[in-house]
UniProtKB/TrEMBL annotation:
Residues 493-503 have a biased composition (Low complexity). The keyword Nucleus applies. It is found in: Nucleus. The keyword Oxidoreductase does not apply. It comes from Dermatophagoides pteronyssinus. Residues 8-256 form the UmuC domain. Gene3D superfamilies: 3.30.70.270, 3.40.1170.60, 5' to 3' exonuclease, C-terminal subdomain, DNA polymerase, Y-family, little finger domain. Residues 459-477 have a biased composition (Polar residues). This is DNA polymerase eta. Residues 452-509 are annotated as: Disordered. Coiled coil: none annotated. Keywords: DNA damage, DNA repair, Metal-binding, Nucleus, Transferase.
């Protein structure tokens, strides 16, 4: 879809962490306030500044003591600390509240129009959301709202200093059959929706926010920042080239980091307008074709990145800096911090699982050292039957990934550690995957029996192989049979809870006994004729998996699932 046909909005909470704190101490509203992390060093590092405090020149990144000098009456809220780590739950919970209001409002609006899936909502950060309102607006008749309603929502226009009032006049006095005017009216209609949504957010959470209303993500994000706080800004396509004359390349979404700096240095330019003057061939000389095309589009106000339907975060993460002397130089310290970070993360993962019915499949461990810079490792999370493994197991998997051998002293100390659980999977899908895994496992068990039979018929000539006893040879896996039996004969459904409990125990015991016997047999050396070649990689693999399954109480879970019908073998 051509860019100006889309209507894309960014909602961003104003000085979010400060508002979260002010809501809890309402006498602090309208007073200069900041949120600072770490109490004991120069008044703590400031991570959020409200607009009253910004008026004194206080900025994020300053130390609390320094800010107090600029504004003696400044109130400093402290981020709570747990085990030496900032506890940010309060802000995350407040964020979930805001997103709930946004979701409910969208649902309500769609319901009133008797239509579904008109709005795409993408959670962009803890306090930001993109909305694609194209379908919603196009489902309504093209109509100008009352100017007064819009000004009540503190709506601003970004277009050569033109007032919203003057802009409105031209629509009222001219016919609106030209496409550009129609697009502008669509933006105005979207502003009504956004104003009402912001009002809902305020009424239900007490939080104020700002919004940008334009045609793509880059422009709406830019527009949102133009009149903060508590305002919404319309940015029509026609206003882009003049606006870009005063927009620093680094202030544009995705150009804030290395890439933006690189562009400024290479072409010796500063603004987006200057970037639009760099011709395509010159861009191509310095960047690959795709990047050059993308930069050229951005410089002309075009950005075709879609708003994706994502109401949840892509990952759940936490981290900790260890500056100067605090840097971790012993493996045992790293172990302790991995456990501590994971404790926090695991609680959040469990909460997220309950609330959003999803499970993370991958843990990304990041660390920073002076010698290696930023590094990360990915560790799969072994989710079985819709649940996470115990935190201790994840922690030991992480440690194994980080250190291949025990290290007392780490030569290149770790200055930052972070963990992020990601690659989420629907719990139902996770259960289905696990079921498939179990079935595959049983197929292997069947094969192991088959291998045993073959070996019985054609005993190996070599006597040097270590051998193990195999379970009684049957045409079908005995474990699979007993599970089927348990499943079929399960008397659970019609019994009371107490009875359920005792029956489960009886069945678990039967199965456990079998499994223990199997494990004993598979690990003891005997001279029995029924032998399996222990060195056979296939057998070793099965043994490994078997032990893993036993380890994780896999079978007691299978039993539960057979009983409640989620698992069918
Ligand atoms: N935040 C942070 N560290 C950063 C960036 C942001 O802890 N490097 C937190 C801030 O405390 C902030 C929240 O994330 O309150 C949202 O960040 P952002 O939207 O960038 O700033 P706000 O404080 O909300 O201020 P603004 O009104 O400018 O959006
Ligand atoms: Ca914000
Ligand atoms: Ca933000």
């Amino acid at each position: 879809m051509a860019d100006r046909n889309r209507i894309v909005v960014l909602i961003d909470m104003d000085c979010f962490y400060v508002q979260c704190e002010q809501r809890l101490e309402s006498d602090k509203w309208l007073k200069p306030c900041v949120v600072a992390q770490y109490n004991n060093w120069q008044g703590g590092g400031i991570i959020a500044v409200n607009y009253e405090a910004r008026a004194y020149g206080i900025k994020r990144g300053m130390m609390g003591d320094q800010a107090k000098k600029l504004c003696p009456e400044l109130h400093i809220f402290r981020v709570p600390d747990e085990n030496g780590k900032a506890k940010l739950d309060k802000y995350r919970d407040a964020s979930a509240e805001v997103f709930q209001v946004i979701s409910d409002f969208i649902e309500e609006q769609e319901k009133s129009m008797d239509l579904n899936n008109l709005v795409i909502l993408e959670r962009a950060s803890v306090d930001e959301a993109f909305l694609d309102l194209t379908k919603l607006i196009d489902a309504k008749p093209l109509m100008l709202p009352e100017l007064e309603d819009l000004t009540n929502f503190n709506t601003k226009l970004e277009f050569n200093n033109q007032s919203l009032n003057d802009w409105f006049d031209q629509f009222e006095h001219h016919n609106i059959d030209n496409r550009q005017q129609q697009d502008n009216i669509r933006l105005i209609m979207a502003s009504m929706f956004v104003g009402q949504l912001r009002q809902q957010i305020f009424e239900q959470t007490e939080f104020k926010c700002s919004a940008g209303i334009s045609h793509n993500k880059m422009l709406s994000k830019l527009a949102c920042g133009l009149n903060k706080p508590n305002a919404q800004t319309i940015l029509p396509m026609i206003a882009v080239s003049s606006l870009f004359k005063r927009i620093d390349i680094g202030d544009v979404r995705l150009l804030g980091g290395k890439l933006g700096n690189q562009i400024k240095t290479i072409f010796n330019i500063q603004t987006m307008y200057q970037l639009s003057q760099v011709n395509r061939f010159t861009l191509n000389e310095k960047f690959d074709n795709k990047t050059a095309e993308w930069l050229n589009d951005l410089a002309n106000g075009l950005d075709n990145e879609p708003v994706s339907d994502r109401r949840l975060t892509k990952s759940i993460g936490c981290g900790k800096n260890f500056r100067g002397k605090m840097a971790l130089c012993k493996q045992s310290d790293v172990n302790q911090w991995i456990n501590s970070l994971l404790k926090e993360l695991y609680e959040r993962m469990m909460k997220d699982k309950e609330m959003n019915q999803r499970l993370a499949r991958l843990m990304i461990v990041g660390y920073y050292t002076a010698g290696k810079g930023h590094c990360h490792r990915s560790i799969p999370i072994d989710i079985t039957l819709g649940d996470y493994p115990p935190a201790e197991r994840i922690a030991s998997d992480i440690m194994r990934q980080l250190f291949s051998k025990p290290l007392i002293i780490i030569q290149d100390p770790i200055q930052n550690l972070s963990l992020a659980a990601t690659k989420f999977l629907d719990t139902t899908k996770a259960i289905m995957d696990s079921t498939a895994k179990i079935e595959k496992f049983f197929q292997k068990i069947d094969r192991i029996t088959f291998i045993g039979q073959q070996q019985q018929q054609q005993p190996k000539s070599s006597k040097n192989h270590s051998t193990i006893n195999q379970p009684p040879i049957q045409s079908k896996s005995p474990i699979k049979k007993s599970i089927q039996m348990v499943g079929k004969k399960s008397p659970m459904k019609n019994k009371s809870n107490n009875n359920n409990k005792s029956s489960t125990t009886v069945q678990s015991n039967t199965l456990d006994r079998y499994l223990q016997q199997y494990q004993r047999q598979s690990t003891s050396k005997t001279n029995n004729d029924d032998k399996i070649d222990l060195n056979d990689p296939h057998v070793r693999q099965i043994n490994r998996e078997m032990n893993q399954l036993l380890d994780s109480f896999f079978f007691s879970k299978i039993l539960c699932m057979l009983e409640n019908g989620t698992l069918k073998i």
